[in-house]
Design goal:
Mean pLDDT: 86
Largest sheet: 12 strands, antiparallel
Oligomer: single chain
Bound molecules: zinc ion
Number of strands: 14
Shape: globular
């Protein structure tokens, strides 16, 4: 399934593989830091980072971005932080600030290598997932893409050690006691899968969507799920995931 996510670009503190030219405003991207640095030297630009933000629930140790709209007289300010605790729904980050959940979003992928999390597998701090090379290139070509669809999947995590499900019995000895969460699908190179938000459809695509939707409605009106509130909530969810 796919979820609509927001993409934000911000100036970076250190050199990155993406930069914005000061003269032309163009974005350029190189596969290696060396090439990007050299290009940036003669082009004269600012290094940038990309952040993919979702509406996913924020928990302790998640990186999040606060779009600080309290400063209405200035440009919107963005602040990055790692959540340390949630109190009455407010998101507290390492600098002790409490952020309003309405304008604080979870960072699910980024080119910013400074945002690290403790890996389930290795017990080392590792960078967050990245958008793919292809996406970064496209983003630079188009000088920005504000909204994308990100592929999610249902992942099982061990209730005891919180590691990802592998096999019937977890390494920690816990026997098939897993909790399931909808999380971004990751490729083996730690990149997320991004699809563009469509705004026009061919006749064939509309037919395919109608078929998917009628299957979905069939499922909804089976006796055990027939419930109007559920149907309406789920219709919005279906639209969010499929359109
Ligand atoms: Zn376990």
């Amino acid at each position: 399934m796919f979820k609509k996510c927001k993409v934000v670009m911000l100036p970076a503190r250190k050199a990155t593989t993406i930069a914005k030219s000061m003269t032309s405003g163009k974005l350029f991207y190189h596969k290696t830091l060396e090439l990007a640095k050299r290009h940036n030297e003669w082009e004269g630009g600012t290094f940038m980072n990309l952040y993919v933000l979702s509406d996913d629930k924020i928990e302790a140790n998640d990186w999040c971005m606060c779009d600080d709209r309290n400063h209405i007289s200035e440009n919107p300010k963005y602040r990055l932080g790692k959540c340390i605790k949630i109190v009455n729904g407010w998101i507290y980050t390492m600098d002790g600030m409490g952020e309003n959940p309405d304008w604080t979003k979870k960072i699910i992928a980024t080119t910013d290598l400074n945002l690290t999390v403790l890996s389930d597998k290795s017990n080392f701090e590792v960078p967050l997932p990245m958008p793919s090379d292809l996406f970064i290139k496209k983003y630079c070509e188009l000088k920005g893409i504000d909204q994308v669809l990100v592929e999610y999947e249902n992942k099982g995590k061990c209730v005891k050690c919180k590691r990802e499900k592998e096999g019937h019995v977890c390494e920690c000895g816990e026997d098939s006691n897993y909790e399931y969460q909808i999380l971004p699908k990751l490729a083996s190179d730690n990149t997320i899968t991004i699809r563009k938000v469509k705004d026009s459809y061919t006749k064939e695509e509309v037919i395919k969507l109608l078929e998917t939707y009628s299957d979905f409605v069939d499922d909804l009106y089976r006796p055990h799920t027939s419930n109007n509130i559920l149907a309406w909530e789920s219709k919005d969810e279906w639209i969010e995931k499929n359109l």
